[in-house]
Amino acid sequence: MHLNFALIMGSVVVGFLVGLTGMGGGALMTPMLVLIFGVTPSAAISSDLIAALFMKPLGVAVHWHRKTIQPKLVRYLCYGSVPAAILGTYVMHRLGSTKSAEKHLELILGLALIVGAAAMVGRAFFPTRKVVNGPLKINRPVIITVGVIGGFMVGLTSVGAGSLIIVMLLLIYPHIRTDQLVGTDLAQSIPLTAAATLGTLMFGHVQLAVTASIIIGSVPAVVAGSLLSSRAFTKTLRPFLGGVALLSGLKYVGLPMDALGVSAVIILAVATVIAVRSTNVATFDAPAILPEPALES
């Protein structure tokens, strides 16, 4: 097994950004593997899923220590996401590993990245609200459905845990602090990723050298990022990362290079506007003295 030093360094960057911003690794790691290192989409998705199983627990430990995880919300998300993740890996397996199948998977991955990036951009424009006193009601069917949608997309494309799920949770609970959303989403992504990893090992597509390189680079980096995840500058960074995910998605779906160049300029301008707006607007996770809401089933 030959480790790739360049891939290890790239994984350090991605792992740090995942811990820092709460973005799912699939929105950054998988495009890096395919577009920069030439890994096939099926192998990139499978290797990213397995590496995430090693990468995320340390980040979760940081959030657990800070008490920014909502255990009951995690439980109901997993009721939907765990079986759906296995189903997603099975669908990827059924697509096959021919060149035509890899092209189809690349298109699906591109669409997933575009949807995930759009969700991240939309999150920046949600109305901000202060944390309120009193328990949050858990609508079990809704939360389980969120888990099903996110779990299936993670199993199929490795995209969804840190983009789609976290945005859907924000729509349902707009007054939860960002660090609570990130901590809760990271916690539920561990059993989700474990299920997707099980499916991946059952159905193949794994490249051990790629997986090992990702793990070596990303695991310590995600801890460093998690330790800084409550800092205000993460809000400024997130729009630009969403822009990178969007550009990757556009590349996957076959947008010509000239159009990609124009899109990059537009996306950079929009990301800058969102970043400036995020630094000028007081958000619900700024005050440290506000009480944390309790969850009741």
Topology at a glance:
Blueprint: H1 5-21, H2 29-36, H3 41-65, H4 71-95, H5 99-124, E1 136-137, H6 140-157, H7 164-172, H8 178-203, H9 208-227, H10 233-252, H11 257-280, E2 295-296
Parallel strand pairs: 1-2
Helix pairs in contact: 1-9, 2-3, 3-8, 3-9, 4-6, 4-8, 5-10, 6-7, 10-11
Structural account:
This protein is mainly alpha-helical and 297 residues long. It has one domain (5-296). It is 73% helix and 1% strand. It is built from eleven helices and two strands, in the order αααααβααααααβ. The chain has helices at residues 5-21, 29-36, 41-65, 71-95, 99-124, 140-157, 164-172, 178-203, 208-227, 233-252, 257-280, and strands spanning 136-137, 295-296. A two-stranded parallel sheet has the order 1-2. The longest helix is centred in the middle third of the chain and has 26 residues, at 99-124. The protein is globular. Residues 282-297 have low confidence and may be disordered.
Radius of gyration: 18 Å
Across the major sheet, the strand order is 1-2
Element-level helix/strand string: HHHHHEHHHHHHE
Query: Roughly how many Å apart are the termini?
Result: 48 Å
Q: Could you tell me the number of beta strands?
A: 2
- Estimated helix fraction: over 70%
Q: Approximately how much beta-strand content do the residues carry?
A: under 5%
Q: Give the number of helices.
A: 11
Largest sheet: 2 strands, parallel
Structural category: mainly alpha
Whole-number count of domains: 1
The best one-word shape is globular
State mean pLDDT (0 to 100 scale): 79
Low-confidence stretches: 282-297
